[in-house]
Design goal:
Radius of gyration: 19 Å
Number of domains: 2
CATH topology of the largest domain: Peroxisomal Thiolase, Chain A, domain 1
Protein name: 3-oxoacyl-(Acyl-carrier-protein) synthase III
InterPro entries: ACP_syn_III_C (IPR013747), ACP_syn_III_N (IPR013751), Thiolase-like (IPR016039)
Helix content: 25-40%
CATH class of the largest domain: Alpha Beta
Organism: Halogeometricum borinquense (strain ATCC 700274 / DSM 11551 / JCM 10706 / KCTC 4070 / PR3)
Strand order of the largest sheet: 5-4-6-7-1-8-11-10-9
CATH superfamily of the largest domain: Thiolase/Chalcone synthase
Shape: globular
Largest sheet: 9 strands, mixed
Distance between the termini: 24 Å
Strand content: 15-25%
Pfam family, one: ACP_syn_III
Number of helices: 9
Keywords: Acyltransferase, Isoprene biosynthesis, Transferase
Oligomer: single chain
Number of strands: 11
């Protein structure tokens, strides 16, 4: 069995931004609530004709490949784990990105766990790398689901933090000579749990086979995200979310030979500020061991690498020998975690 290393990563966010003040003006929610409670000072968004999911993925991929010191031709796999809302409906974005970056030797496919996608994609890909099925993989996550947010729908207000951006990771096995010398982090174990009782709580009502697109679905505004039973979901989720976050964190740490006392940095999905602070306190790292994405918002499964990158730029990121946890949750509802040992 081979070890697996994260050898490079990259990010991309569009230049256009929306501030907390602008979100407050559009939604009618007080600015202090948007900025302080929801945790959105600003977020990056895409203009209608620019920065599609494939474009953002290509930009992040090229940065990650350069950071890893490999070439597109070295890739055996290109995996897209980002938003299902892409350039086209029923379309393999991974194949398009592989073609555009010149990954001619890679096969390309997609994996969806919504906002929990990064830890799950690492888990699946690391398993292939450890067995020798592949040697080098590129993982991509991107989102512009901000397009799907209706600021007049207060049932979906917890999604007003949705922003746009992309991340990419290169994972390599130690079957390749010199991988450890190029390593950003050693990839250890993962854990995940799904509670399918939430499967129908967050939906795009129209556009699928149950409600195909039509003049009627467009006129009724059924092509934006909705939470049909908002109060019910809020009550049920409050009872299980923290325990499930902590369960997957503890399980991944234990499988990796660690526990919470060893943890140095948590790269966490963007969420309301109070829950972020409570969760990192429970994990024992506090604000010094995390990065809050209040200048980015929530870019789905790109969040973990966006947080790492921003923290390193600020001089507050993980350092050599640190135990790092990628921790995420996605509607459906899945909670997932992956442990890494950081390298300078």
């Amino acid at each position: 069995m081979h070890d697996v290393h994260l050898t490079g990563f990259g990010t991309y966010v569009p230049d256009e931004t929306v501030t907390g003040e602008q979100i407050a003006d559009r939604s009618g929610i007080p600015e202090t609530v948007v900025v302080e409670k929801m945790g959105i000072r600003e977020k990056h968004v895409c203009l209608p004709d620019d920065d599609h999911v494939s474009d953002m993925s290509v930009a992040a991929a090229e940065e990650a490949i350069a950071d890893a010191g490999c070439s597109p031709g070295d890739l055996d796999l290109v995996l897209y784990h980002g938003s299902e809302y892409k350039d086209y409906v029923v379309w393999n974005a991974a194949a398009d990105v592989a073609e555009r970056i010149g990954a001619d030797n890679a096969y390309a496919h997609e994996s969806y766990t919504l906002c929990a996608g990064a830890p799950v994609a690492i888990r699946h890909t690391a398993a292939q790398l450890r067995t020798g099925d592949i040697d080098t993989a590129l993982l991509l996550g991107a989102s512009r689901e901000e397009d799907l947010v209706d600021y007049d729908n207060d049932r979906s207000s917890f999604m007003f933090n949705f922003g746009s951006g992309a991340s990419a990771m290169v994972l390599e096995s130690t079957a390749i000579e010199g991988v450890e010398e190029r390593s950003c982090a050693r990839v250890l174990k993962s854990a995940a749990v799904t509670d399918g009782r939430f499967a129908l709580d967050v939906i795009l009502p129209a556009g699928g086979s149950k409600h195909p697109p039509s003049d009627e679905t467009v006129s009724e505004g059924l092509h934006t995200l909705d939470v049909p039973n908002h109060e019910s979901m809020k009550e049920r989720l409050a009872a299980v979310s923290l325990p499930n976050f902590l369960t997957v964190a503890d399980d991944a740490l234990e499988a990796s030979g660690y526990d919470r006392t060893d943890l140095d940095f948590v790269a966490l999905t963007h969420m309301k500020r109070s829950f972020h602070e409570h969760l990192i306190d429970e994990l024992g790292v506090g604000s010094a061991g995390s990065y809050y994405l209040d200048a980015f918002g929530h870019a789905q499964s790109a969040d973990q690498i966006l947080a790492i990158d921003a923290a390193l730029d600020a001089g507050d990121g993980p350092t050599d020998g640190d135990v790092v946890l990628f921790l995420a949750a996605g509607t459906g509802y899945t909670w997932a975690a992956t442990v890494l040992e950081w390298r300078a």
